[in-house]
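Design job #97: recover the sequence.
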């Protein structure tokens, strides 16, 4: 019953700005839906984005992008204008580029965080 087609979603402040970011910066397939946008992934998974006038971004990561090479992915995103986030309360420190090198420190994957135009926290991570 619940195992068929579940999906997640989160709000954005400006649907057109979100479309441009997710298509042009992230290179994702973005489709219009009846109530917002749908991010489509090659795996068949999708994420729903819906406009919300009083949008408040979550204080946690809403979408993770697994990558084969975090440094290469960061370089690509930086070239496209993405700025990475630095946080104080992590289990180990981030490097000068903003990557928490979790594999070296025994704290999970290498991971770096950034935000979409609505302030939603996204991450790239290398296992």
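Job complete. Output follows.
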């Amino acid at each position: 019953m619940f195992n068929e087609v579940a999906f997640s979603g989160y709000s954005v402040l400006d649907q057109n700005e979100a479309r441009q970011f997710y298509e042009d910066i992230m290179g994702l397939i973005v489709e219009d839906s009846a109530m917002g946008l749908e991010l489509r992934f090659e795996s068949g998974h999708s994420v729903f984005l819906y406009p919300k006038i009083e949008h408040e971004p979550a204080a946690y990561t809403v979408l993770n992008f697994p990558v084969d090479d975090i440094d290469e992915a960061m370089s690509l995103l930086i070239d496209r204008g993405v700025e990475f986030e630095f946080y104080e309360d992590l289990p180990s420190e981030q490097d000068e580029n903003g990557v928490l090198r979790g594999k070296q420190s025994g704290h999970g994957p290498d991971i770096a965080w950034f935000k979409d135009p609505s302030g939603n926290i996204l991450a790239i991570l290398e296992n």
